[in-house]
C-alpha cells in the first residue's frame, strides 16, 4: 500500500513523532510517496520510511532545486508545478497521511477531502494530531457539518490519531 504524506517542509516540532510514524509504517510494509523535500517534517517522514527499508518516492515540481530533494527518494518524479505534484501524489496513493503543516498541507488536505466527499475515491485519510495540533481545524469541520456545509460526518471522512501505532490500527480497518 502506498501512503501519500502531506507535511510541513519548515516545521521541526513533532520531528521525533513523525520519524517514528514513518518507521512504524515502513516496517509494516507500507511505501511512501511525498513531496520530496529534505527539510522539516517532510524530511522526518522520509527518514522514518527509509530507515525501515521502505521505498520512498519523491514528487517534485520542476523548479525545485535538486539539492533540496531527500536522498532516499528513488524514484524522483518531476511535475510542472505544485498543483501537478499534488495530483500525481493523489493518483499514486492508496491512503493519505496528513501530518502537521501549514497552508500547503491544508491545500492538500482540503483537495483530498473535497474529492472524497463527492465520491471520487474511498481512500482512507489519516490525520496525525500530536499534542492536539489539529483540534481547532477538526472543530471547524464539525461546525461546518453541523451547519450543513459538509454532509458527511468528519469522523467518517478523516481518521485522527496521536500515537504512531494507531495509524496501523486505522489502516488495518481501512
3D architecture notes:
This protein is of the alpha/beta class and 174 residues long. It has a single domain, classed as Rossmann fold. The protein has seven helices and seven strands, in the order βαβαββαβαβααβα. The protein has helices spanning 15-27, 40-51, 82-92, 103-117, 135-146, 154-157, 164-172, and strands at residues 2-6, 31-34, 56-61, 76-79, 95-98, 125-128, 159-161. A seven-stranded parallel sheet has the order 4-3-2-1-5-6-7, sandwiched between helices. α2 links the parallel β2 (31-34) and β3 (56-61). The longest helix has 15 residues, at 103-117. It is globular.
Number of helices: 7
Structural class, from helix and strand content? alpha/beta
CATH topology name: Rossmann fold
Which residue ranges are poorly predicted, with pLDDT under 50 across at least 5 consecutive positions? Answer: none
**Oligomeric state of the chains in view:** single chain
Number-wise, the strands total: 7
By CATH reckoning, the class would read: Alpha Beta
Reading the helices and strands in chain order gives EHEHEEHEHEHHEH
Outline: globular
Helix content: 40-55%
- Largest sheet report: 7 strands, parallel
Strand portion: 15-25%
* CATH second-level architecture: 3-Layer(aba) Sandwich
Number of domains: 1
Amino acid at each position: 500500500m502506498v501512503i501519500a504524506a502531506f507535511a510541513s517542509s519548515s516545521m521541526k516540532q513533532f520531528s521525533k513523532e513523525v520519524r517514528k510514524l514513518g518507521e512504524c509504517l515502513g516496517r509494516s510494509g507500507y511505501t511512501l510517496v511525498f513531496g520530496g523535500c529534505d527539510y522539516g517534517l517532510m524530511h522526518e517522514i522520509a527518514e522514518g520510511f527509509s530507515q525501515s527499508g521502505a521505498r520512498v518516492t519523491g514528487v517534485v515540481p520542476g523548479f525545485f532545486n535538486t539539492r533540496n530533494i531527500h536522498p532516499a527518494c528513488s524514484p524522483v518524479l518531476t511535475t510542472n508545478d505544485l498543483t501537478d505534484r499534488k495530483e500525481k501524489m493523489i493518483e499514486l496513493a492508496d491512503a493519505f497521511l496528513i501530518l502537521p503543516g501549514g497552508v500547503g498541507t491544508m491545500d492538500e488536505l482540503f483537495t483530498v477531502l473535497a474529492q472524497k466527499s463527492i465520491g471520487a475515491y474511498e481512500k482512507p485519510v489519516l490525520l496525525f494530531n500530536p499534542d492536539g495540533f489539529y483540534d481547532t481545524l477538526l472543530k471547524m469541520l464539525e461546525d461546518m457539518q453541523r451547519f450543513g456545509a459538509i454532509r458527511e460526518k468528519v469522523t467518517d471522512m478523516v481518521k485522527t490519531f496521536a500515537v504512531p501505532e494507531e495509524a496501523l490500527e486505522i489502516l488495518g480497518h481501512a
